[in-house]
Amino acid sequence: MKKFAFLLSVFISVFTLKVFSQEPFADEIRAFKIEDSLHKPPQHAILFVGSSSFRKWTDVQSYFPGYTIINRGFGGSSLPDVIRYANDIIFPYHPKEIVIYCGENDFAGDSTLSAETVFERFKTLYGMIREKLGDVPVVYVSIKPSPSRREYWAKMIEANKLIKDYISKQTHANYVDVFSLMMNDNQPKPEIFLSDSLHMNANGYKIWQKAIKPYLVK
Question: Assuming Cys at both sites, which of 73, 154, 156, 210 could form a disulfide with 55, CB separation 3.0 to 4.6 Å?
């Protein structure tokens, strides 16, 4: 009987692992967990969470000396992905502040998606944070004007406005406009993007640094 129970537990564990591994970005989330097990993450740090614009900001800590940063940007994630993994990459860290960049990939992943849907997804994530972490400060970085995604700009601008208006009515929440800062004469600054016209180089991250820093808490 004990042998059967043991085999059953092994089967359940393997099955659960297989199912989890089939979820989008499961390998990246697992890598975060392995990293956390090897190097205990600091408690009450500032958590950067969202998509690849954060993931590729690998030296983000050097941009904000004097602040303790945990970076949990992953893959080409959309808001539903961040919501799905919130129990893995947000809540366990008990951050003293959360900085979010996400929403751009929502449009790129579904050309029929409306700005209102992305806004509702943000509200879902924001509500989860409020329910679990109370009044922890939340900073939302606006969707950026990636040249390769020009076809979605109108909806991105609308989503930015909806989120900005919503945040303006909340407490302990701030909206950071990087869209306009990355533009020049109604065109995105070419010198701040990599060759893929999607991700940023150091010049782009310097813009983000100046825009975000005033909203970080010590």
Answer: 73
The kind and range of the H/E element at 100 are strand 97-101
The length of the chain in residues reads: 218
Cα–Cα distances in angstroms (integers) from residue 67 to residues 45, 52, 63, 95, 204, in the given order: 8, 21, 9, 12, 20
**Rounded Cα gap, residues 177 and 160, in angstroms:** 8
Burial state string for 52-61 with b = 16 or more CB within 10 A and e = fewer than 16 = bbbbbbeebe
List pLDDT tens digits, range 139-187.
Answer: 999 999 999 999 999 999 999 999 999 999 999 999 999 999 999 999 9
Cα radius of gyration rounded to whole Å, the chain: 19
Spatial contact of 139 and 182, defined as CB atoms under 8 Å apart:
no
Dist. CA 139–CA 100, nearest whole Å: 6
Q: Give 113's pLDDT tier (boundaries 50, 70, 90).
A: very high
Sign of the torsion formed by the C-alpha atoms of 62, 136, 169 and 110 = positive
